[in-house]
């Protein structure tokens, strides 16, 4: 959310591109239509349990000479085509907020292999001080560079360093759990799981998403499935309730020209799918026995649609 608002902090206008119904990430087929002579960056989000199609997105970006900023807040430790997410774009941005797979309460990091850009990012986050310099040393930050205090502390670094030692092991466990959960519902018509990134191996996970958008589930709200699962011993949770531009924390206004859409007046694929998703938090994916039980519950509940409809009538 902050990433989207940060665009307005520098006077830019966010342009929302709709998602792929499979990965729930930016649809490369709709990206090019969103590009104008004013476009300054492309920000694909590796969301929940998938990686945006970096191969296609980077090809479009290179064609137009536009830098890519990867939003990797949900994809710590994920690998795309043999290389870590966040290392493909001009900048990779990671969040360490308390719910993330690597967490220090708050904070984040931006990575880049461009030294000039790295120096500028450091100035931005360190109230204008250059790396390694103390107060009063060095030269002034550029006059047009509005610097802030986004400094982390050694305390966050210690916490994250310890988590980093086990990140590869955790991501591997998440990846195996996700495969098990996906396989559990392969025979359930109208019910599916979010597709991982096309060239991801392993895929990083913030959460595992089930999607029930087939006609078999027409008219069944997510809370009914959620409650039925809870009655069996596990509540998957409702995940995201609405598209980001509808959420209360996103207070930019379209009618004031503070954001726009690549096409039309909304992102119709996103709006149709969001109410049809159920999320399983990444912490749960680390426990194999728990995941096996969840897979059993999800299959039992979703393969009995008639019972779900009977339950609806009783409500």
List keywords for this structure.
315 residues, 10 strands, three-stranded mixed β-sheet, globular, three-stranded antiparallel β-sheet, alpha/beta
Task: Note down, in words, how this protein is organized.
With 315 residues, the protein is of the alpha/beta class. The protein is 35% helix and 10% strand. The strands form 4 sheets. Strands 2-5-6 form a 3-stranded mixed β-sheet, with no helix packed on it. Strands 7-8-10 form a 3-stranded antiparallel β-sheet. The chain has a two-stranded parallel ribbon with strand order 1-9. The protein is globular, with a radius of gyration of 21 Å.
Write the layout of secondary structure elements.
Elements: H1 2-9, E1 15-16, H2 28-31, H3 54-64, E2 69-71, E3 79-80, E4 83-84, E5 91-95, E6 108-111, H4 115-125, H5 154-164, H6 167-184, E7 192-193, E8 207-211, H7 222-232, E9 260-261, H8 268-273, E10 277-281, H9 282-285, H10 288-302, H11 305-314
Parallel strand pairs: 1-9, 2-5
Antiparallel strand pairs: 3-4, 5-6, 7-8, 8-10
Helix pairs in contact: 6-10, 7-10
Radius of gyration: 21 Å
Amount of helix: 25-40%
Beta fraction: 5-15%
Structural class: alpha/beta
> Order of strands in the sheet with the most strands?
2-5-6
| Number of DSSP-assigned strands | 10
Q: What does the overall shape look like?
A: globular
The description of the largest β-sheet is: 3 strands, mixed
